[in-house]
Amino acid sequence: MTDKKIQSVDQATLEMIEKSHQDGCSTVFDRAENMKPCPIGAEGSCCKNCAMGPCRVPINKSKEETPEDHNKRKGVCGATAETISARNFARMVAAGTAAHGDHGRRVTELFMAVAEGKAPGYSIKDEQKLLQLALELGVKVGDRPNNEIAKDIAEILQKDFSRQEGELNFIKRAPLKRQAVWRQNGVTPRGIDREVVETMHHTHMGVDQDYQNLIKQATRTALADGWGGSMIGTELQDVMFGTPSPVLSQINLGVLKEEDVNIIIHGHEPALAEILAVVSQDPVMIEYAKSKGAKGINLVGMCCTANEILMRHGIPIGGNFLQQELAIVTGAVEAMIVDVQCIMQGLTDVAQCYHTKIITTDERAHITGSTFIHFDELNAIEISKEILKMAIDNFPNRHKNVRIPQVKTDMIAGFSHETITYLLGGLFRASYRPLNDNIINGRIRGVAGVVGCNNPRVTHDDVHVTLVKELIKNDVLVLQTGCSAMATAKAGLMLPEASKFAGEGLASVCETVGIPPVLHLGACVDNCRILTAATAMVKEGGLGDDISDLPVAGCAPEWMSEKAVAIGHYFVASGVYTIFGVTWPTVGSKELTDYLFKGLEQSLGGKWDFEIDPYKMAQKMIAHIDLKRKALGIDKSRERVLYDMAMRRDLEK
Fold this sequence. Notes:
This protein has 653 residues and is α/β, with parallel strands linked by helices.
């Protein structure tokens, strides 16, 4: 067994790994130790797209590859290493885009149902954002009721999924120069579904065999995620559930309560979580819990659903991706309710060691050994009560083997684009001007988006925390989403007091505004909020006329999901230098890797990079930020000077 000290830097995680061993229960950490990754697959050099294979074309590591060696490294059909790697990379982008696109589609369908009055329990909570969307999309407002306006918005955005020609609606949100870059390179996305389908066709055996053209289609598909499916999902969720604003809560397994019915909501679709957040506070349900011997009901989030209900309700987070099984190991969880994405099948095996019920709720994601209850948004309240009742009924079955780590940390979350502009400028002067000014004067060196998953191939949470500490120490403001945000929150970096870890310039700005140096922006689907922030910085002026001009960088230090590749690629395609850790899926092809790491920058302004060591990762990001500062002519710190009349007269001489 791997030494516990290198499995995680989180104390609660280490405690539960130890308990799982004592209980004879296997978790993801054990499976990762027993299952070594395939070296050829990790390089992206294995093709299984037809029955003539699988074909493996591993890179020649023993010597410098000759043309003869390269010629031997081909699949049965003649596909080269770069073609195979590009196809695999494009398929990862397509899968990630499909996941976020399907999420956005479900949100749009619910939005239409709300507009038509068919979804009791849901409503329009952010009228201002509804009206802003209407104006942006050309929907008539006047004295029309909100539900009619919402219906028109839903109809317009639904067409973005099935659109065959033209451009997605939110493409016009990007800076004009960025839009021109996409059009010149032929990568402006049409319909979200069309791009995913076309990528799958490109990568079918015997179709596209040019790695640059494969990456071109992958780029168009990734943009359909960031400026399409994800952005639609985030915008409509804000309108229905409320635009996030700063909220104080807590994170880690210590938020579980021994005397309460503990219910964990896990996944990525917030519709069920929104209703559970309300129904769990129903006095009737609380009394029912008491009748079973519990003190009350404790709803806790896990993974990205956790981020959603944290931002809007202040509901605490139990943990990130690699902690989902460990929450059950506490022995204190009556039910874990899951929907889609990042749900480990191992949950049902772990649950058999304890009394926890695994309840699946989405037709797209059944798990053998779980209890399935179909969640219908049109009957959300009654189904939510049924699920809660099932969890409460399980409380008397709890074993005596309960051990909740006494580890939890305060955190502040909910920094949406709207909140950031308000904090920087107030109600009447809301803007990014103070941020831009402090980047120009050097107090803030630049901005980094640090996002993504956990991966058991590296020490849990360590790369996230180490990287972010290094960035803020060097005056880089950090924006975070997903499981990465949870990692640094557990380390105490999402509190104003964390300014003590920041450089003098960044700390002074954070203390003045009253924000942490690390800002929580939401779930993985909410990475589009970072795109929105970058666009706002460009439009504010003083930092160039495109996203590629900004002193910004992106990173997914512990990524594991295909969604992460789609997210990373839409940031690269938007002009952002983006670096991944853990592993890189195209190292089996030097040609393709060089193209992604160097060639793309010539056409798109953004590029990929790869680094395992968090300190070197930070150095690369900071070096890129400094390069952009130099190009803008702001590489030297300049303090503002208040001129008196004598100084003004001297200027006129």
